[in-house]
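LOG
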Amino acid sequence: MISVCIATYNGEAYIQEQLDSILTQLGEGDEIVVCDDQSSDRTLDIIDGYHDARIRTHRNEKRLGHVRNFEKALSLSKGDYVFLSDQDDIWLPGRVQIMMSKFEEDAAVDLVASNFDLIDASGVHLGEFRNLGEAKKSRFGQAFAIFAGRAPYFGCTLLLRRSLLNNCLPIPSGVESHDIWIALIASLVGKVVNLPGPTLLHRVHGKNVTKKRRALVVIFRTRLLFLSALVQRMFSLKFKTV
């Protein structure tokens, strides 16, 4: 069973195009889990209009922010394999089959990621993103590359095995990026496969969730919190398996 987790917030402009590109690639027993963060527009009305049993929606009682909203969606998923999805992208045809095939080829794979193409608000092609190279052979080398910003992982490109998700949740307080957190855990406890080509069209527009430039002291403090959380999780996973 495949789960697709979408965190929505005021996404009425693009959510239908995104859902259309996903639903055609799913089977009858698969699911889309939508976790809505108190949208004030027609996002939920559009989703409810599908009347598709594969779509399950949850509306947060209060605003959680994008990291906690994705965490909530992931916690509600039931599939053996879990995709993360933004609300405003477009999945390229064959994406599910291409990414799922990596699990079939190698039972040790826990996470599959890819590159993508860029489009604007109107769907016009802006360029290519090919900065995600082959995963490092060394686990610590791979983790260092992620932490140093040399291996860029975006949540919208990720597909993970359920067992990995169990190791990633809950996301610790202080972690500001769910995608980097998942990629780091996968790199340290499992096997990661990066696809060189694109599997989706990533939309760039004025309402994307972006991180503003911050002072170095703020960056340093958040990196320390991130590193501390990662070390604690690794210790807890080690003792859990003993």
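LOG (cont.) second protein
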Amino acid sequence: MRKLIPAVGLLALAGCEIPSEFLQRMETQSKYEYYEASEFWADGRSMRAPPEGSIPREAKVGNPGMTTGRINGALVSAIPVPVDKRVLLLGQKKYGIVCAQCHGVLGDGNSIVAENMGLRLPPSLLDLSSKPVGHFYAAINEGYGVMPSFSGELDTEERWAVVAYVRALQAARGTRAGAEQPLPQENR
């Protein structure tokens, strides 16, 4: 009995005659085309200017150093958020989820994924300590080489937290176990 219900429904729909103008009414309705003159608006144009004060969604707003890792095209050299224990713990967590698969848990580029990469191995982040912090942020935000952008996985705060954690990994590289290390001092 249940198998019969869909068959009856299809049979009923097959008998319906829906006029094509009903299905295509949006294509055939009257509307203005681009740059067409209009008698409705006082200025005679059909295309409207954006409202005063509106911002296009493609526009970069706010502090460009914070959102892109660059100011006037130059990579920023200071982390623009205060670096504290909470930020470093967030950076450690997000690094472990997003970055460690390729760059290794220690940031040295040693990982199972890296061992199986055929094109180009991920670099050791520890060897890049001379790069400004904007380099790491821009790489996370835009991608770098064969590394894709992770801007969809990490928001702005999380990206900077990962950068702070990478700096902490770099600072800890030559440190003996148990030695006290200050937080990265790049948060001016």
